[in-house]
Amino acid sequence: MSCFKLKRLPESLTYLFNLQTLKLTDCNSLLELPKSLRLMKNLWFLEMEEFPRLHCTPPGLGELTCLRTLSIFIVGQDASHQIDQLKELNLGGNLSIQGLENVRNFEDAKSANLMRKKNLISLSLSWKNDITEESAEYFEEVLKGLQPHENLEKICINSYEGSRFPNWMSTLAFKHLNDIRLKNCGRCEHLPTLGKLSSLKSLKLKGMNCIKYLGTEWVGNEEISFPSLKILIISEMPNLEEWIIPDSVESFPCLKHLKIKGCPKLTQLPFLPALRDLNICRSSLALVGSITSLTSLTSLVLSELADLDVFPVGLLQNHKSLEDLQIVKLPIKTLSNVLDNLSALKNLYIDRCDNLEFIAEGLQYLNSLENLDICWCGSIRSFPAVILESLSSLRSLSFQHCKILNPLSGPLQKGTDLQRLDIYTCWEMKHLPESVQQLSALRKLLIWNCKICDLPNWLGSLQSLRVLRIRDCKPLAKRCKKPNGKDWPKISHIPCIEIDLKIIQDLDPYIGDWN
């Protein structure tokens, strides 16, 4: 059943005594399930998404002894909603237990019998965020009692307010555990020794406000620490100051993807030899300096770094393998000192850099650049067409929401291999630039929300043009109507034409990708 507006399921649903599978998707308004669901004795699979408004699960679910999948169980205060309802259920797949603030001690938590549910693959444990001091003392005992079977592959712990995690989280017995997510565990001062887990591939830490150091404690004293970890995300950790790898331990040999977000006190990254993708967001300017030594990077994202108005000298001087660079919401004014040596760069994305006035400097060195996107940069006035002569590999060029930009201005002496040109909300552009007629390889042209009133006669000379899309350009749209629009003869040779989401010509079904 899938219904966005559905708030309740009818009680009459429980008369389907032979029903084995009940699956609910996209029911974001769902408040509750039928109270008599325990009568459906043949139910094997009860699958639900984690709907934000669902405040309780039906009473007496422990009576459904045939259940093999129960996506969500919400612990309540009365006996029919207590966590011991899970005791006799031989559950597998994914299980999310919410409302754990209603579990008071180790014995109650242990009554869920999670350690004997060997078919569980994924387990999510959640408390409410508004926990009082009085209830916080129970956290560590409760989580200790919720130890799952060693076959578990993924665990998520949300809003846990204990000061430390139980020992079972770092035991070597969890040979299949490959994904751990710890979220909003605001009072936790110590992380478990996760470096011991031989199969751990993905680790996400968020909202761990009391963690100051990442060092020996979470790395452990194994010969190789985090031997299989490939993805690490550390976000919203405002007091994290140091991340240190002991010299005596080989750590993170397989780590390829790292994201650091909202860590303003972290000033240094350790050396990570296998790192390929790095994302730094809302963190310290000093942290950016660590990039200099991470020369194995193929992808780099720098975003929302309020103090980064000038790139450090030589930041990417030795990054010969960098292929993707995203620069988002930085107060920089120029790119002249960061692009010089990026001979392998294929994709450059610049977004919401409001102070950026000059973009031409450095682009001429990007001989491998294939895609260039410039979005929401309100201070850029020009992008001379002559730049394209230096970008011999460029295939896609996009200008989006640069309202005072007049793109591709000036002459273009020779044609390029550019195949796609997107121009969105560039209000200074009153006419399609003359330089576009030199783009003999152009296959797709998209014009959105611009003040262009007509199309030039030379558009017919672009014989490679296969797709034309025009949106939110009212005078132009009227002139391009088929068959009597004044500009229709100029575009009628183009196989695929879309105007304001309406396809008015589709003569080549093999083009396929209109996007």
Automatic annotation (TrEMBL):
Residue ranges of the R13L1/DRL21-like LRR repeat region domain? 83-208
Q: Which SUPFAM superfamilies match?
A: RNI-like (SSF52047)
Task: Enumerate the InterPro entries for this protein.
Answer: LRR_dom_sf, LRR_R13L1-DRL21
Q: Which domain of life is it from?
A: Eukaryota
PANTHER family (UniProt xref)? LEUCINE-RICH REPEAT-CONTAINING PROTEIN 57 (PTHR47186), OS09G0267800 PROTEIN (PTHR47186:SF3)
Name of the molecule in the record:
R13L1/DRL21-like LRR repeat region domain-containing protein
